[in-house]
Structure formats: structure tokens, C-alpha cells
Amino acid sequence: MSLPTFDPFEAIAAHSAGFAEAATGNLGADVEFCPGWTVEDLVRHLIEVHWFWATIAGERLAAPPEKERRPDPGPPEQLIGTFQAGAERLVKVLSAADGHDRVWTWAPAQQDVGFITRHQVQEAAVHHWDAVHATGGALVIAGPVGADAIAEFLTFSVSSDADPAEPVRPALGGRFALRCSDLDASWTISDGSSPGTIDHAETAGADVPAITATASDLLLWLYDRVDVDTDPVPSDLLGRFRALLFTD
Q: Structure pTM?
């Protein structure tokens, strides 16, 4: 399977611009899937996220930057401008770096700038959706962005052989597939070789029960944002799968 390509820097910039537009004038709106948060909280969160990863990538840090270095985002009336400046800095830093440059990340299997870039596409897209949803609107994440984010999620945001959950969680005990209805992209999810871990293959056989939806909806379903038709897959298997995800 060969996923369609896209420019990750353009994707981060576009989703950040869309996020800023949705957040403007709506800082007090509740963010349904971030319990207890308003859009203002989400803006402040992303300001810190952008500073954190731009600092790591820009300085090629081998450890997270000290919390004391975090800038003050300012009062509510300045937040959108601060967010926009931070997003622009992040894109500038990441696009100027070599993706293979070694830096600290939270993923044991990939400690380089490329990981930061790929994950920031996912973070920008999902939180753009959060902000639009908080204002009563709807957003469809582009298929290539959604499909790459699904593949990234299944590599790094699950209990895996490279990064097993601690303490050990119950095994998946089966397999099922995710299949994009808008792209030629699918993944079969199965048990990893270590107890309580997940592995995936970028294909889906006809004999494997599959959840089929757009790439956007499958990604948002992984993040528990939207519902999709999961009837082909036993509910107990999906429950064990959910218990093996890292989505904080």
C-alpha cells in the first residue's frame, strides 16, 4: 500500500490557520472531547505544544526543555496572535531542519525531527476539528492527511513491542481491519509479539472483519471523536483494543 503524499508543513500551517479562525471570538466555547476545557484552554495548550516542539527541533535537544523556559502566552485578548506566531515558528523551524536530525521525542522507536513533524500534522488536524466542532461547525480532514495520521497512530499511539504499556494490559486476542472508503488504504490490527501489545500490517484480507469509513472519520474514531459502523468487529475485541491505546 502506498499512501498519497502531501506537504506536512503546508498541512500544519493550514490546520493552524483554520484553528485560529475557529477559535477567534469563541474562546469560551466548551470543547466536548477535552473534558473541562474551553477553546481558550485548547489555544493555550497548543501555544505550549508549538513552543515545546519548536524548541526541541530548533535546538536539537536531547531532553525536554525546562518548564521554567516556557513563555507567558499573555491575556485572553492576545492568545490568538500568540498562537499564530507560535504556529508560524513551528513550521519555520521544522521545514528548515533535516528530518533525520536526532532529538528527544516521547516515542522510543523514533528520536528525530521527522517524528515531530509527522505528529504535529496529526495534532494540528485533530485539534482543528475540536475547535470547529466546539463552535457547532463540521470539518473533514483531507484523505491523505487522515490516512498518514492513522498509520502514525497505529505505530506510536498503541501499546507496541517498541513501547509496551506498563503495567502489562490484557492482550488484544484477535484481529480486525480499518479500511478507508475514500482511499486505497487499509490496516490489519493484530496482537504484537509481546504480551499486551498491538501490531499492524498495511493491508486487509477479505477474511478479516473490517471497519470501513473515510480516512477522516477513522482517524477521529481512533481519537474517540466520532462514531463509525463497528458492527463487523466484536465489541469485546474493540474494548480490548481501546485499552491498548495511548490518546492523552
A: 0.95
CA geometry: angle at 130 spanning 126 and 132, to 5°? 115
Residue at a domain's end among 117, 139, 161: 139
Mean pLDDT of the chain: 96
- Residue 1, domain member (yes or no): no
Pair (127, 19) in one structural domain: yes
Q: How far apart are CA 18 and CA 101, in angstroms?
A: 29
Residue 197 pLDDT exceeds 70: yes
d(CA 52, CA 69): 10
Query: What's the rounded Cα separation, in Å, for the pair 6 and 149?
Result: 12
pLDDT of residue 247: 80
Among residues 15, 17, 44, 41, the alpha carbon closest in space to that of 28 is found at: 41
| 3-class DSSP state of 100 | coil
Instruction: Give tens-digit pLDDT for 128-182.
Output: 999 999 999 999 999 999 999 999 999 999 999 999 999 999 999 999 999 999 9
Q: Which candidate, 107, 140, 145, places its Cα nearest to that of 123? A: 145
CATH number of the domain encompassing residue 197: 3.30.1050
pLDDT per residue as tens digits for the range 208-240 = 999 999 999 999 999 999 999 999 999 999 999
- Domain-embedded: residue 15: yes
DSSP 44-98: HHHHHHHHHHHHHHHHT-SSPPPGGGPPP---GGGHHHHHHHHHHHHHHHHHHS-
Other C-beta atoms within 10 Å of 35: how many? 7
User: Do 28 and 86 belong together in one domain?
Assistant: yes
CATH assignment of the domain containing 112:
1.20.120.450
pLDDT at 3: 66
